[in-house]
Specification:
138 residues, alpha+beta, 25% helix, globular
Length: 138
């Protein structure tokens, strides 16, 4: 089993969620947070704002479909024309891979790399082993 979740992420130490949403013309997905908010009860505040836009495709979908989903929700032009990337903001595609094999690998199609380039973004990949019977991280 190998499943993926893909999000477009914008981080900033100076902007708030509302400012990023206003600049790109789109509300953020769950999992986003403002700098200064507390992560967990008794935890430390986040030192940067994290704005997320999640793919609406199921975890079983191809990377191409996930990237297309994000592109249909927020076109690259919205990011590039917003002026966000001229400041301290960082833009990247977050790819989370869930696997139950002995190891994890993922191929990134050339079309996805072209999308990343259009957004002036980077790629971050994290791999999570899951319990094949429960479908939850080990």
């Amino acid at each position: 089993m190998r499943e993926v979740k893909v999000s477009l992420v914008i981080t900033s130490s100076s902007l708030r969620l509302s400012e990023i949403s206003s600049k790109v013309g789109r509300a953020h997905s769950s999992g986003s947070h403002d700098r200064g908010t507390i992560s967990l009860p008794g935890g430390k505040p986040f030192n940067e704002t994290i704005w997320r836009m999640d793919s609406t495709e199921p975890e079983s979908a191809s990377l191409e479909k996930h990237f297309t989903s994000i592109g249909s929700q927020i076109p690259a032009k919205s990011i590039m024309d917003s002026g966000l990337l001229a400041g301290d903001a960082r833009c990247f595609f977050d790819i989370a891979v869930f696997f139950d094999d002995a190891m994890c690998s993922i191929d990134i199609p050339a079309i996805c790399l072209k999308v990343v380039e259009r957004y002036g973004a980077e790629i971050s990949i994290a791999c999570y082993p899951v319990d094949d019977k429960l479908g939850s991280p080990k």
